[in-house]
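Lecture notes, part 5. Sequence design as translation. It can be helpful to think of inverse folding as translation between two languages: the language of shapes and the language of residues. The source text, in structure tokens, appears below.
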């Protein structure tokens, strides 16, 4: 395979992860896969006088089959995966964290007076267990109310500080993101000194991710 992008810490492959995973070596998966809910963004933002965020959807989101097939190929490697609380958790889920998207998120599609401002983070497979630990509620200092998507062009971009939290607490080893999107997992891994591999089926997001990885490494106080 020829990488789309490569540096000392990160490698990007453009293609279907189901055709690539078997050829890779990695120790942990941190990813934000298609949730399997046939998501599309309409023109409600325009109707409210905001900039339109219309989007026709993302590849592999018709159901959970693409996500599940990729996770089956991963095998016994521990997985950290964002997901939809309304859908059945992936097989092998050991714990569910809550990603609190913040006070400025989730206005579109509110039901019963409650915003859609939380998502799941699933810990799947062989994660360590014991007493204590961090809070299972993840928060961000970054505005998640559409600004991230406008910055990267990917509608489901996650705040880098949330992904940093997940990587800091993830098992050691090379990180794989089989649904790389705009490259937040790889960017966070590189900033933390971790090696990472990303796979993305949509070439336009490979380009976005490559540009993000070419930027200067941030300083997280020597974390690794």
């Amino acid at each position: 395979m020829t990488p789309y992008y490569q540096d000392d810490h990160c490698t990007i492959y453009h293609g279907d992860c189901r055709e690539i995973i078997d050829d890779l070596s990695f120790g942990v998966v941190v990813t934000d896969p298609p949730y399997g809910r046939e998501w599309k963004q309409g023109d409600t933002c325009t109707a409210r006088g905001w900039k339109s965020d219309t989007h026709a959807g993302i590849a592999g989101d018709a159901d959970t089959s693409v996500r599940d097939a990729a996770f089956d190929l991963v095998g016994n490697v521990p997985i950290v995966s964002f997901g939809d609380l309304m859908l059945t958790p992936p097989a092998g889920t050991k714990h569910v964290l809550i990603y609190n998207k913040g006070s400025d998120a989730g206005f579109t599609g509110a039901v019963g007076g409650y915003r859609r401002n939380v998502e799941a983070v699933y810990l799947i497979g062989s994660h360590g267990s014991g007493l204590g630990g961090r809070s299972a509620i993840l928060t961000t200092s970054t505005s998640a109310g559409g600004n991230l998507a406008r910055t990267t062009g990917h509608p489901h971009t996650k705040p880098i500080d949330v992904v940093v939290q997940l990587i800091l607490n993830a098992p050691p080893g090379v990180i794989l993101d089989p649904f790389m999107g705009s490259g937040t997992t790889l960017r966070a891994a590189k900033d933390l000194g971790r090696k990472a591999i990303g796979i993305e089926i949509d070439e336009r997001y490979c380009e976005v991710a490559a540009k993000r990885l070419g930027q200067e490494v941030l300083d997280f106080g020597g974390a690794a």
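The translated text above is only one of many valid answers, since several sequences can fold into similar shapes. The longest strand covers residues 93-100.
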